[in-house]
Amino acid sequence: MDINKTTVTANREYKSDAFKAYFSEKKNALELYNALNGTAYTNEDDLEINSIENVVFLKIYNDVSFVISGTVNLYEHQSTVNPNMPLRDLFYVSDLYKPYTAKADLYGKKTVRIPTPKFVVFYNGADDLPDQSTLRLSDSFMQKTDSPELELIVTVLNVNYDHNKDLMERCVALRDYSILIQRIRDNLNKGMGIEDAVTDAVDSCIRDHIMEEFLIKDKAGVINMHVLDFNEELHNKSLKEEGFEEGEAKGKAEGQRIFIMELLKDLGPVTVTVKDRLDHISDEAELTRLFRVAAKATSMQEFEKELH
Predict the structure, then answer these.
(1) Domain positions in the chain
(2) Please, which residues have CB within 8 angstroms of residue 169's CB and are 6 or more apart in sequence?
């Protein structure tokens, strides 16, 4: 199959769920947590999966969120590092904390305790990133400061094969996932079509007892997830990065329109009417409102109802 002719109808609720599905299994999430934190928890019941989907400003379909030992851990798998992850995680963790504070007296004298947050992005894209890097919320501030009064730090780990070898040795589940991804990439580099490349890689991993139980359990689903994921990576790898950079260059209002358009493309074809109406909106507050609407919308019709 010709890669350039591969057509995949991407169900956005389904795309990129392989990492999430694999590490939402408590045994794998616990193993990954232990490997990252130097702990040795063995009781899977100590870990509580609490993923939130479709949080405002988030289109996260592949996150893994769980609480253990007084920490709330947000893990996300990406093939393109998003510089806005600290901001996205800020909105995410704010919603995540609400159940912990719903009955608390936030105006009282007693300190309200919340789980300690830890944010990690597991990167396995084609660009050559260092084993570990850091994203900071303060990098997004319009006015730079050496002493930010609000900060959120995201650790980015390169989990491509042959990176972070010590971590891979401590976490077999993560190592096996990196092997699967590398085999898909190797097949693509040989000129195989996306579907054939993914199917062959999955079959070879099953034969070699790599992620065997997980892959056998939902082989068709896993293949479809990765076909969608790699199709998007190959054809739209830098789409959101380009939108961000272009928005920076053209000013805040234009940048907001670009971000809205990128979110709308996830919902389907953007009509000329919708684009023209957006182009004529210059009020930043209204564009911010529409950005929120686009982030939560599940259909183009839902967005158009809010587009006055």
Answers:
(1) 3-236, 239-306
(2) 175
